[in-house]
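User: Second chain of the day. Same drill as before.
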Amino acid sequence: MDASDLWDICSWVAGAGSLVFRRWWFLSPFSPPLSVCALAALILCCSLCVGCVGWCSWLVVLSELPSCGQAVHPLRSSQHTMQFASSHSGFIQDPPTLANQYANDAVLQAILRLYVPPEKLALVEPDLARFGGVVVSDQMLDWVQNAEDNPPTVSQFDAWGRRVDRLVTSEGWRAMRTVSAREGIIAAAYDERGRLAHNARVVQFAKYYLFSPSSALYTCPLAMTDGGARLVELSGDAHLMNHVFPRLTSRDPHTFWTSGQWMSERPGGSDVGPTETVACPPSSSSPSSSSPSSSSSSSLSSEEDDLWSIHGFKFFSSGTDSDATFLLARHGTRGKNGDVQVKPGSKGLSLFHATLRTPTGASNGVRIHRLKDKLGTKPVPTAELELVGMKARLVGKPYEGVRTIATILNVTRIHCAVSSVSFLRRALATARDYAHRRVAFGKPIAAHPLHARLLAEAETHLRANMELVFYVVHLLGITEVHERQSAGVLPPDPLQPLPPATSYATDLLRLLTPCTKTFAATDCVHQIGLCMEALGGQGYMEDAAGIPRLWRDAQVQAIWEGTGAVMAHDVARVIRDDRVGPRAWKAYGEMWEPPMRPVSPLRARC
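Assistant: Same format as last time:
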């Protein structure tokens, strides 16, 4: 049926209506009821005419609509006719997809070729390639979403009014613990030294880099666990090495422990001098009245009767579901009258290690005051804790808590930097894939110069940060292996940009760690924002591509373990140190002297 057919039908209906109207009107000019009937008949015929036109028009439109499966743009058909769209028809945009995160990452592969010898890389690359597919599998992404949708909660009392402080976490969060242990995210840095030597750290952080964006921020407790394992290794404490270290570095999910790190209190964050938490000597009582939790604490075995009793309030405790923790407390001594005396300032602090539960499963004097409501890192349980007679073991020398815990801080700051670049890499991979799927003004948006420039800028920043971050990771591996060797100097490798004296690598690591943490964390937040912009309005949607989650979670990396100003002060302390400063600057200068700084394959391709 075409337009002429419609016109014939309309003409016939209109003619019939006109004939009826004339007959009724002229045959009965003096009969008002008949005239009214004639007018009604005309209106009826006109209504039929309009109805026929509308019905026939719908038949024509429906006959010309594309069948299911045809991809016809609603405004760009060959006939230039407007087509009707619905919730299930019309144009549907293909969403961005993520390929294997190792096979699709030329930057990471180039860095591994730069630092890891070919024969050793051949041993670990198949596992990295496998894991690159695991981190973007449907199962992993479902766990991430489950953890994001179900933040932790706390039940402080049971039905009988007893204090229980039961922390409830999501299925996705608990699954990440299992994945972390089985994949050896922490263990690889320690049990792979035998075959990878100083390259173990680079390989470990390569796997960590793949895991981080798909971990629901489980990398937060993993970072503190890694730092704690390194501290235990350096401490030489027989009890910690025999009972704690094997758990922190285990690949068995049933044996694996995560560790916390409790420093911040209400009087100060990075300034630990005003710390109010007090550690009472083993044979002394609490600084106040007896604690109601003392009965649960007394269940500890008799062989641990020398444990200290911790009393205080910690304002930030990330990964509150950890199995153990390292914490700073004011070192108490007994006075003549049996009271507890302390020294003021940071020089009065010691480091302690404690488990969060006793061997019987009861709380080790830990009360959860409340959980924090944060911008990002929603799956991570972060709480304010009241410590009431918490039993703990002294770690290191008395009054050297700040210096001792610095080992954890140096490791966790490197974790912050690696997580930052991993978030940027995931956001950029999403934006790049979308740029080849989204069409605007007749061509993919990747072909538009300004959009290509935005992606190129983010890529450049990613590569620069990756080189800096993994250079620091490599230095960490060098220093750790050097401490376990009898020789004072490792043979220089012309393919690896290292200072000739390994002892200088320790000082260079001390200088570059705070710089790297700050630069990577702050820059990657901005670049992730550009990747969000690259997806337009869909980039801003929580359920579209996952970039808003990455952007929120990346914010914490610039704050946790020290803001930019705190890191600047740390760098200044290194430079002003009469012993470390000159060696660090010497090593920094030798980085750029040929042949110790060859052009890397990564930079050559840029």
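DSSP finds 20 helices and 13 strands in the chain.

User: Great, on to the next one.
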